[in-house]
Amino acid sequence: MKLKLRLILILLVFANLKSLAQVSSDKESVAREWIASQAKELHIQPYHTFKLTFVRKSLAGETLRFQQMLHDVPVFDNEIVVNFAHANEVTFTSNNYDETIANINTIPVLTANEAIAKSNKTLAFKGVITHQECKLVVCKISNQTKLAYRVVTNAFDMSGSWEVMIDAQSGAVLSTKDVAVYHHKKEKKKKNEAKGENKNALKTTNFVNGSAYVYIPDPLSQAHVAYAGDYVDNSDATNASLDAARTRVTLPEIDYTSGVYKLKSSFVEIKDLEAPSKGLFTQATPDFLFDRAADNFEAANAFYHLDDSMRYINFTLGIPCIPLTNSGVLWFDPSGDNGADNSYYSSGTLVFGEGGVDDAEDSDVILHEMGHGIHDWITGGHSSSSTGLGEGSGDYWAMSYSRSLNQWASNEPAYNWVFSWDGHNEWWSGRVTNYTRTYPQTGSTYTEIHTYGQIWATALMKIYDVIGRTKTDKAFLEGLALTNSSSNQKTAAAAVRQAAINMNYPCADIQTMTDKFNAAGYALTALPLTMAAIADQTVAADANNTYTLPSFSSLANPIVANCNAVVTQSPVIGTVLAPGTYSITMTATSGTATVSQTFTLTITPNLTLNENSKTKVAVFPNPTKNQITIKGDFEANESVTIYNLLGQKVTERKLLSNEETIDVSKYESGLYTIYFNVSKASYKFIKE
């Protein structure tokens, strides 16, 4: 049963993500109207158009991404993002539209194959290509608008993910750079370097349970000790203390094919993508039980944390988020980057280095790099590194998990340490989430993206400590989904707060976010008075077949700065209502501002009243097509009310004799209830 349930959940997640990839929305016309209304303010040029390329429906509403186009060629990394909160009202936008893109010829002279050949020659790699893509784009190079082929290549003997821009008219190489996203800046010592070939092959997948020894999240936090004595890297050597810090965990899914077990699940798959070549660590047993001296340990450790985090996002939080490449599966190489002490994310792939403390031994490194991937996928491939947003987001995702384990007290330094095992030692200084500087920063010392990102991670963790992990994680992920490739920390803060509002977080939570973000220097705009739409409610009448209106203020949840709105309702609290359908209006007032929302309240009759009185009454024929007859010994002043299945009143009349006929020929087919208002009895009949 558990296996069947897991398969159903996985299918639901992937079905949801498949629907996102269809790139269509009934809100497209409204979004385009909004873009048109901003044409003057954005200085939109008449020769620029916008193509809907990505639609995301999730907890914070529906988000549409419009790619800036020039003659049907995309302008690289430029778009307008429009978010709707469960209605046709635009609630948040972000854009990096570039009005300076000139109206150039977009018919290429060079072919895509010729561009790839030039890129390969420029990079001069010799190993097997593990990933390569080539796209025709319009871009700005040295302030000039160019038509170019953007070729991105990963190769086994080449550390990183290399972008080469080739002029599509002249064939000239316009730029070459590594676009992989690394977890820290400084180059480190290398351990072992080796060359080899990538021999991965697709096989039919059969998932089974497995187990593994892992660090949760690292040996220092698990043992609650400092980096010293037995708890040091010591060239990957193990000892009794480091072995004792391991935890045996269940791997919910691993691949079992032809008697061979492999670290592959619905979400994550091991790959041998870069030197050093250490293989895929397949084996004949489902139990990956190793100590840190074995490379198998890093493989299992990375696999467990990546797979666990993917399941947490998609299943626990209910937020659809998988890679945009590799058929939605995250690839990882636990021994790559040519042995350097660094790790990186690129194009749905994670590569972990082995210098210093092996990066795949520390869940902070693993989840930081995955954080870059999340940022990439949830923005449809438009993540931003501006002002360290990407690095801070990765640090937050790592710290969100490790702090949830409650292994350090808030007054201990390690409580705020990111990379507790991989950093804060002789190899490098790591990072923190109690960074004291505020946004914005100037000067090279503090604007390096890894340093700058600590402001963002610190602000998020301060919110986390007040409203908790689940709420902060949801708002963080849904907020990132509203940003674009040039969004800075301030824009992201506004987006996270708006996502929380869209998800109807209590005003106190929104105020916490505002306070913590503003303390970090983001200077968010004051919130106007708003109230989310209230869902219709259905309730049952009481023993007297009436319903006394309670306060519905908790449903109203008005949002305003300082959370000082006063809520009233109409009809007022305490009003006694009979079964039926009513409109309830909630009004919030703050100063001179007022906002209202109306919802439908359906009160269904109490159908369990005085069942014994039915023996004195006959209702026939039942079922009926045209009329019903009610016969019995009725009390004085008896009357009946007929309700449909929704509890809506259809007919009400007095009974003038002990036998009455009621015409029901115009009723819709269905189940109806006759309620005797004096004797408090009820009877059901079917209209055919």
TrEMBL record:
The region annotated as signal peptide is 1-21
One MF annotation (Gene Ontology) recorded for this entry: zinc ion binding
BP GO terms, sorted: proteolysis
Which InterPro entries would you find in this protein's record?
FTP_domain (IPR011096), Peptidase_M36 (IPR001842), Peptidase_M4/M1_CTD_sf (IPR027268), Secre_tail (IPR026444), Zinc_Metalloprotease_M4 (IPR050728)
Q: Which residues form the Secretion system C-terminal sorting domain?
A: 619-682
A family per Pfam: FTP
> What's the superkingdom here?
Bacteria
Q: What are the entry keywords?
A: Hydrolase, Metal-binding, Metalloprotease, Protease, Signal, Zinc
Query: What cellular component GO annotations does this protein have?
Result: extracellular space
According to the entry, every stretch annotated as the FTP domain falls at 64-96
Protein name (Swiss-Prot/TrEMBL): Putative secreted protein (Por secretion system target)
The species this protein was found in: Flavobacterium aciduliphilum
